[in-house]
Amino acid sequence: MPKIRNVKELVFQLAVVVILLILALAVAFPFALTIFSSFASDKELLMRGAVLWPKEWTLDAYRFLLDNEQFTTSFWNAVTLTVVGTTINITLTVLMAYGLAQQDLKGRTVINFMVLFTMLFHGGMIPTYLVVHGLGLIDSYWSIWLVNAIAPFNMIIIRSYFQTLPKELKESARIDGCGEFNILLRIILPVSMPTIITFTLFYTVVNWNTYFQAVLYLNDTNSYPLQVFLRQVLIVNPSELGLSVTDSGYLYTEAVKHAVILLAALPLIAVYPFMQKHFSKGMMMGSIKG
User: Fold this and answer.
1) DSSP, residue by residue, the chain
2) pTM of the entire structure?
3) Which CATH number fits domain 61-286: 2.160.10.10, 3.30.460.40, 1.10.150.130, 1.10.3720.10?
């Protein structure tokens, strides 16, 4: 009987490994195709389509993008949106989560219900647009930052984690004369870094991939973030784009499309390895208590 179990376990483990390898290849293959195709010449891509190993390596697609004012402007717009937006997101989320984690807070139950209500029911696109327009935030990044200031789900998870921390930590700090802000800053945050970093990564991804709200609230094309530029390059007819046509033909070639996809994903790919070790731990720590 033990031998049969060992054989079954071995078969099961092999099946799991095979399935995971297939899934990994399904993810890695298109990504590798994009990377190598971005270094191929336009002539080769026209002849062969996407390639896994170019016959002729060239940086023309990247040179064009780096010289393209539309791309550089949209890239730095995305950086601004992401850095400032994520800072606002995580700051307000942590402050609200810490406040709602206090058992003696008056009106805590009502506020928690209001937060949960926003997860189930949303005002809708048109009412939200009217509010943003009424506040005079159209054509301002504040229309994106304020609308997305706090994600209720993220706040609830962080609040739940704060509730699991020993009360003795805060009580001893209060005895030493620490105020609530100093308790949060010097005691709670240092022991909560895995959770904070995890949700910082979540907010970073959301802000970097901002597209729909940018199109909805921003009328000035010079304020568009990178994802809007990416959509224009990949979907919109090249003849509708400025700097896209010259005497020699279209400049937004297949190589350029592959290059812009890679450059749009590169910042998140570069940041994720530094946060990966905190990711699983942060999610588990934040979901222990409801």
Assistant:
1) -HHHHHHHHHHHHHHHHHHHHHHHHHHHHHHHHHHHHTTB-HHHHHHHSS-SS-SSB--HHHHHHHH-HHHHHHHHHHHHHHHHHHHHHHHHHHHHHHHHT-TT-TTHHHHHHHHHHHHH----HHHHHHHHHHTT-TTSTHHHHHHTS--HHHHHHHHHHHHHS-HHHHHHHHHTT--HHHHIIIIIHHHTHHHHHHHHHHHHHHHHT--HHHHHH---GGG--HHHHHHHHHTS-GGGSTT-EETTEESS-HHHHHHHHHHHHHHHHHHHHHHHHHHHHHHHHHTS--
2) 0.81
3) 1.10.3720.10
